[in-house]
Write a structure and sequence with these properties.
single chain; 5 helices; 2 strands; 73% helix
Length: 133
């Protein structure tokens, strides 16, 4: 199901802002293994909650964390990049930034498309759609 242009624009802003933030953090903390996860995970959780609001889906923090946990690419991909090159000054910073940003982008669009499908399959009640996950 196609996303409305307004929804796509809102998702674009939310996802890209989160991706830029996580790339900055990933690049800045590359030489300290897993330290960036402490800052990146809350950004991704906030992104998921904000994406839900675009589609009138209410998500609490624990549900957003569970949704993020199911996308294990974050932990796996970030861990692999840090072990391979994260410790190398400059190169590790760039590689870590790209990995963090790209994974956040991927997670964001995957979730946005899922929320879009969920919202299009529901029937409005009294002109309002509100789902709680």
């Amino acid at each position: 199901m196609r996303m409305l242009e307004d929804e796509r624009t809102k998702c674009h802003v939310i996802i890209h802002m989160a991706s830029l933030a996580t790339a900055g953090i990933g690049g800045g903390l590359a030489q300290i293994p897993t330290s960036d996860n402490i800052a990146i995970i809350p950004i991704q959780v906030a992104m998921i909650i904000a994406l839900g609001s675009v589609f009138n889906i209410t998500i609490d923090e624990s549900t957003a964390k569970a949704t993020l946990a199911t996308t294990t690419a974050t932990i796996t991909g970030r861990s692999i990049s840090q072990v391979l090159v994260g410790w190398i000054p400059a190169i590790g910073n760039v590689f870590n930034a790209i990995t963090a940003g790209a994974l956040t982008e991927s997670i964001g669009w995957t979730i946005a498309n899922d929320f879009n499908t969920r919202s299009k399959l529901r029937t409005p009640l009294n002109g309002k759609i509100k789902e709680r996950l």
